Amino acid sequence: MFFIQLRDLFKSYGPVRALDGLNLKVPKGSLYGLLGPNGAGKSTAIRIICTLLAPDSGHVEVGGRDVLLEEKEIRQRLGYVAQDVAIDKILTGRELLQLQGDLYHLDSKYKRKRIDELIQRLDMHEWIDRRCGSFSGGMKRRLDLASGLLHEPELLILDEPTVGLDIESRSVIWGLLKELRKKETTILLSSHYLEEVDELADEMAIIDKGKVIASGKPDDMKKELGGDRVTLRVREFSDEAEAESVRKLIRNINGVSNVVVNQKQGYSLNFLVKSNDVISNLSSHLSKENFEVFALSHSRPSLDDVYLQATGKTLMDAELELAGKRDFKLENKKSMR
Amino acid sequence: MITTNPSIPKEKQSSNDLNQKLQEISALTWRLFIQLIRRPSTLFAGILQPLIWLLLFAALFSNAPIDFLPGSSSYGEFLGAGLIVFTAFSGALNAGLPVMFDREFGFLNRLLVAPLSSRSSIVISSVIYITTISLLQSFAIMATSALLGYGWPSLGGFLLIAITLLLLVFAITGLSLGLAFVLPGHIELIAIIFIANLPVLFASTALAPISFMPEWLGWIASINPLTFAIEPIRMAYHNSVDLNLILINAPYGDVNGYSCLAILFILTIGLFFLIRPLLNRKLA
C-alpha cells in the first residue's frame, strides 16, 4: 500500500520548469529517499506534498487523501522538517516546541509529556531553555526535528536534514530516523548525500530535471548495474577523440558493458566489468592499439554509479553544473510565501 | 471542519473548533508578546519620538498668542491629539514587519504547514498584538500630555478616543499586513514605512489646523485618514463630547464628529475587503 502517490506532476516558476511530469509512489511505513542535486525538483515536490504549494497540474495523494482537496486532514498527519531551519531567535527551544504543540492543538499535559520525551531522545536538555538565536546548526536541526515529531505524525518529511551538520548531530538524527522506521512511520527523505540515502533508505528515487529517472531498492539498483565499476585513464589528460577511440575498443571486450566517457573528469572512461579476469586482461587489449593504462580504479557498485548510469554524470558534477546556473532570486521567491 | 490527528488519542487534542482557534490565536499572539518583552526597545521607541516632539514643539510655540489656534488654549494642548494619533498610526504601520520577517526567513512556512483551524489566526494574532501596542503607546502619550498640564478627557471622551484609535489602528494594520504579503522583502517595507510616516503626519491636522495651510495642502489634509482621527480626539479633550459638532472645515464642506467616525469605519472595512483576496491567495 502506498502512502504517497504523485502522478504526472508539473510545476513551473515562470520559464523554469521545476517538475516535468514527476511520478512517485512511496510505500507506507518505509523510509524513502529522494536523491538528486540541488535544483532537481526535490524541494518543489516536497512543498507540494506538504500543501505549501499547488502544482500546475497532476495528482497528489497522501494517506489516500487528495492534497488539494483535504489539506487540513493531511497537515494533521504530517511533520515537515524544511531544508532551511526556520526558528524564532527570541524564543527558547522549549517555547518553540510549546508553540508548535499549540498549533497542532495538543492539550497541555500531553504537550508537556511529548516535549520532555523529545528533549530526552534528542539530547537537548542542556540547551533547550536557551534562546534559539544562540544555537549551533546542529542544535537548530535537532530542535526542528523535534517540532516535526511533536504530534506523532504518520508521515515525516525531511528536506536535506543533515546539510552542514557535525558528525554527532548527524548520527543522532540518523539514529532517530532508524527508530521511527521500526515504528512504521512513513518517512520521505530528500538528500544529495549518497551515503545518507544508501544508509537509511528502504527504497529510493533519483530525480533529475523534475522527473524520476530511476527508482527502486538501493541494493537492487546497484545489482542491476551488472558488475563492478572501473574507471580507466589512458593518459593523465585525454581528449575527446582519444577517449572515443578507447571507448570503441573497450566496448568490444567480452565482459565489459555500459562504457561511458566522463568528460568532466578529464575524459576518463567508466564502465562495468563482470569479473576480475576482465580487468586483468585489459592492459593487453589496450596495448594492441598502442594505448596503455595510466590509471585504473575498481570498486563495487555504489549509488554514485547508479546515478551516473541513469544521468550520464556523477552527482557531484551535476551539483557543480547546477550551481553555476542557480538563480538565487528565484530560489528566494520559491521559498517565500 | 474539525480535524484531529489519528495518531494521538482524541482526548489529548482540542476537538472543539472554537477551542482550536483560541488555542492557536493565543499561542501566536503570546509569541509576539514574548518577543516584545525580551526586546522592549520597539515599545519604547514608539513612545520616545512622539514624546520628544510633544516637548520640543510645545516649547517652540509656547509664547504664541492665546488665540493662535482655534479652540485651544495652548499649542501643547493642540498638538497632543495629533501626536496620540501619530503614535497609533506609526505603531500600526509597523504591523507588517513581523509577518514580513516570518515570510522572509521561513517561519511563515512552519505556520502554514500546521493544521490551523483557520489561517486567519495568523492575521488575527498580529492585529491583536499591534492594537495592544499602539493603544499602550498612545495612552503613554496621553498620560505624559496630562502630566505636562494639557488635560485629561472625560469618561465619554476617553471612550471616543479608544474607539477612534481602534478604527484607525485596524485600518492601518490591515494596510501594513497587505503590504507585507505583496512586497518582496523587509527592506522594501521599511522603505515605504520610512517614506510614508512623516509626509502623512505633515499633511494632516496633527501639527496645524487646515486654516493655516495653503489650499492644495488643505485638500490633502481634509482627505487624510489621520485628520478624521485627530479632530474627534481633539474634541474628546473638551468638557462635553458632542459628535454633532463640526470638527473639520474642509474645502469640500464641513465634517462633523459622526462623519469622521463613519469615514474611519468605511476605510477599515474597505481596506479589509481590499486585502482579503490577497491574504486568501497568499495564505491558502
Characterization of the model:
- The complex is a heterodimer of chains A (about 325) and B (about 280).
- Chain A has 14 helices and 14 strands.
- Chain A has two domains: about 1-220, Rossmann fold (3-Layer(aba) Sandwich), CATH 3.40.50; about 225-300, Alpha-Beta Plaits (2-Layer Sandwich).
- With about 325 residues, chain A is α/β, with parallel strands linked by helices.
- Chain A is about 40% helix and about 25% strand.
- The two termini of chain A are about 35 Å apart.
- Chain A is elongated.
- With about 280 residues, chain B is mainly α.
- Chain B has one domain (about 40-285).
- Chain B is about 70% helix and about 5% strand.
- Chain B contains eleven helices and two strands, in the order ααααααααααββα.
- Chain B has helices spanning about 15-40, 40-60, 75-95, 95-105, 105-115, 120-145, 155-180, 185-200, 215-225, 225-235, 255-284; strands at about 245-250, 255.
- Chain B has a two-stranded antiparallel ribbon.
- In chain B, strand 1 and strand 2 form a beta hairpin.
- In chain B, helix 7 runs parallel beside helix 11.
- Chain B is elongated.
- The model of chain B has no long low-confidence stretch (mean pLDDT about 90).
- Classes of the chains: A alpha/beta (about 325), B mainly alpha (about 280).
- The interface of A and B includes residues 80 and 154 of A.
